[in-house]
Specification:
The structure holds two protein chains of two kinds.
Chain A (H helix, E strand, L loop, with lengths): L3 E4 L2 E4 L5 E7 L5 E8 L3 E10 L2 E4 L6 E4 L5 E6 L8 E8 L3 H7 L2 E2 L3 E5 L1
Chain B lengths: L3 E2 L4 E5 L4 E7 L4 E9 L6 E7 L4 E4 L2 E6 L4 E6 L8 E9 L6 E3 L3 E6 L1
Parallel strand pairs in B: 2-11
Antiparallel strand pairs in B: 1-3, 3-8, 4-5, 4-9, 6-7, 7-8, 9-10, 9-11
Classes of the chains: A mainly beta, B mainly beta.
Chain lengths: ~120, ~110
Amino acid sequence: NAGVTQTPKFRVLKTGQSMTLLCAQDMNHEYMYWYRQDPGMGLRLIHYSVGEGTTAKGEVPDGYNVSRLKKQNFLLGLESAAPSQTSVYFCASSYATGSQMRRYGYTFGSGTRLTVV
Amino acid sequence: DQQVKQNSPSLSVQEGRISILNCDYTNSMFDYFLWYKKYPAEGPTFLISISSIKDKNEDGRFTVFLNKSAKHLSLHIVPSQPGDSAVYFCAASESGNTGKLIFGQGTTLQVKP
């Protein structure tokens, strides 16, 4: 099925370890996003990309890095994991034009549940 | 400083009745509002949207109302079904081409048979 695929689905890290979360979409969407979901906080934007080779900071970027080397992939990296990064991470993609994105919204992946101990 | 707020963490309604989920916002530059539905262990899925130049948009059992003067929007589900039980997120988009959405905290809806 077409859509957004996130790997891995679950991961436990020790404080200080590093890891990369992979997001892949097959809808030829220009825009991609990384959000984190925490209880009582909703979904908060970490980083986003408006096209291949471009990235920008969102609301909560500290402690994360991203790369968009290929249009279909958006990687989220944690260089030195901290317990505060325990969360569920969602990747999403959307059409480029504002009106299409706003009418049809994002397509989300199923999430990565990360626990940092 | 939360620009999009859903002040009710949870809502419980009887099957067949109306569910009303509320959302408030502070930024008058938002030009589109969207509702997402999320089941456990899945990603959010797009439900319905409304432009800031409209006051109502309807899609089947789902209707979204926008009151710009009050900076308030609501999602009505009529009639509610047990399969509607999920977390509902309100989101807002600023004008421009970043595509960024600002999400509320979410409201958990339980529809009882």
